[in-house]
Design a protein that fits this description.
Number of helices: 13
Bound molecules: N-(aminocarbonyl)-beta-alanine, zinc ion
Strand order of the largest sheet: 8-11-12-13-14-15-16-17
CATH topology of the largest domain: TIM Barrel
CATH architecture of the largest domain: Alpha-Beta Barrel
Shape: globular
Largest sheet: 8 strands, parallel
Number of domains: 2
CATH class of the largest domain: Alpha Beta
Number of strands: 21
Structural class: alpha/beta
Distance between the termini: 40 Å
Helix content: 25-40%
């Protein structure tokens, strides 16, 4: 006796087909036309699109920033993910610069233990190397891969806290190449940015929007180029996270054309918000828009959308890193002290569907590729991202006709505001299944904390040939 999803249209990254899906236990047993109801529990998906559950590969749950933890811990964060149609998240464990990777892993497994409502995995951020020529930490990378953590984040920004210099970055890349692991890069020239930041503070430019003005798109472009060039030298594959502007995109494309093994994501906010939203005189508290990289001028959006279609950008994630208004107020009078990050895990699919598919910018198939299938392939999760026999029954039943108004009053995310307050979108998650268990019914969360499991990932260097 299984769970039968009948009469829906399955959307894959390649096609749309009227097929039924039979789930037995945690996995998909059959995908075929006209599967008999027999004694199965039937979910009528008439009028709905059946897609693989969304995968958000860039989240920061319960992450300390500026002395305060991000507002969503693993339970509220993954609950919000589920309601938004996302059934797997990849969060970041951060090495303390004086500590080990093992310690960082222990801390993040502790934060997530028994708390996740959907499946999750971790990237490991390497922020320093210890031992002779970094060997102690580099050896720990092998242990991480053995534990299923097959991607390493390197920050080229946030000097003194998370930033790693070029020598150490190159050593990590060489090790990653040997391990077939993927290097995820926060690409911004942190040293140059910090000079500009100091100049602004000295000139009394302390309001929140100066955070954005201090982080030139060219600082992102420079670091994008440098990291890809270094990875190419080291023989490693790289994945640029939160690519936000057309100059960085041009560097990515240039290096891809030269054969570098480089992939990149952008995030929802860079596609639909712009720096104009953050300028003084807007009704919202500007600090709510303080995240890194910052919002860019609107003219950068069209090139990003085009890159989602031409394949130079492979994934849309959120960089979900939420802070409440009270937490953001820690930076009142000094933008350097505003905790960096914004809430978005719940709205990724709504926004990409509305402004992408409904607006004719991407097809439904490309939507599935960017939000579900490519994230699974690139990050070594063979059991996810595709609707096929033997795969995890992570299923999203999407109502393309649903009208939905985004609001902090109704969201699951723990922030007291939404960056998209009052926006009306068409298309929303109706029912969501995580490994065969229904976690969202008619848009309401019905799952439980502890259902979500840690996903051990394969080292496949980003699924690149
Ligand atoms: O502002 C952001 N994005 N905060 C999270 C950390 C990062 O840089 O991804
Ligand atoms: Zn980052
Ligand atoms: Zn991030």
């Amino acid at each position: 006796m299984g769970l039968l999803i009948k009469n829906g249209t399955i959307v894959s990254s390649e096609s749309q087909q009227r097929l039924d899906v039979l789930v037995e236990g945690e996995t998909i047993a059959r995908v075929a036309a006209g599967i008999a109801a027999d004694e199965h529990t039937v979910v009528d998906a008439h009028g709905l699109l059946v897609m693989p559950g969304g995968i958000d590969v860039h989240t920061h749950l319960d992450m300390p920033c500026g002395g305060t933890p991000s507002a969503d811990e693993y339970t509220t964060g993954t609950m919000a993910a589920a309601v938004g149609g996302t059934t797997t998240v990849i969060d970041f464990a951060l090495q303390n610069q004086s500590g080990t990777l093992k310690e960082a892993l222990g801390i993040w497994l502790g934060k997530s233990n028994g708390k996740a409502c959907v499946d999750f995995s971790l990237h490991m951020a390497v922020t320093n190397l210890h031992g002779e020529a970094g060997q102690d930490t580099l050896r720990e990378m092998d242990d991480m891969v053995a534990a299923g953590i097959t991607s390493f984040k390197l920050f080229m920004a946030y000097p003194g806290v998370l930033m790693i210099n070029d020598e150490l970055m190159f050593r990590v890349m060489e090790r990653a190449a040997k391990l077939n692991a993927l290097c995820c890069i926060h690409a911004e020239n942190g040293s140059a940015i910090d000079v500009v930041v100091a100049e602004m503070i000295a000139a009394g430019k302390t309001a929140p929007h100066f955070h954005a003005l201090s982080r030139d798109p060219k600082a992102e472009a420079e670091a994008t180029h440098r990291s890809i060039a270094l990875a190419d030298m080291a023989g490693a594959a790289v994945y640029i996270v939160h690519l936000s502007n057309e100059y960085a995109l041009a560097e990515l494309k240039h290096m891809q054309a030269r054969g570098a093994r480089a992939l990149a994501e952008t995030c929802t906010q860079y596609l639909v918000l712009s720096i104009e939203d953050q300028m003084p005189g807007k009704s919202w508290d500007e600090a709510r828009y303080v995240f890194t990289p910052p919002l860019r001028e609107k003219r950068h959006q069209d090139p990003l959308w085009a890159a989602l279609n031409d394949g130079s950008l492979s994934v849309v994630s959120t960089d979900h890193c939420p802070f409440t208004t009270e937490q953001k107020a820690l930076g009142k009078g000094d933008f350097r002290k505003i905790p960096n990050g914004g809430p978005g895990i719940e709205n990724r699919l709504q926004l990409l569907w509305h402004f992408g598919v409904n607006a004719g910018r991407i097809t439904p198939e490309r939507f599935v590729e960017l939000c579900c299938t490519a994230p699974a392939r690139i990050f070594g999760m063979a059991q996810k991202g595709v609707i096929a026999p033997g795969k995890d029954a992570d299923l999203l039943l999407w109502d393309p006709a649903a009208d939905y108004t985004i609001s902090a009053a109704t969201q699951c995310m723990a922030t007291d505001y939404s960056m998209f307050e009052g926006w009306r979108v068409k298309g929303n998650a109706k029912h969501v299944f995580s490994r065969g268990r229904q976690v969202v019914a008619d848009g309401k969360f019905i799952g439980e904390a502890g259902h979500g499991r840690f996903v051990k990932r394969e080292a496949n260097a980003g699924g690149l040939l």
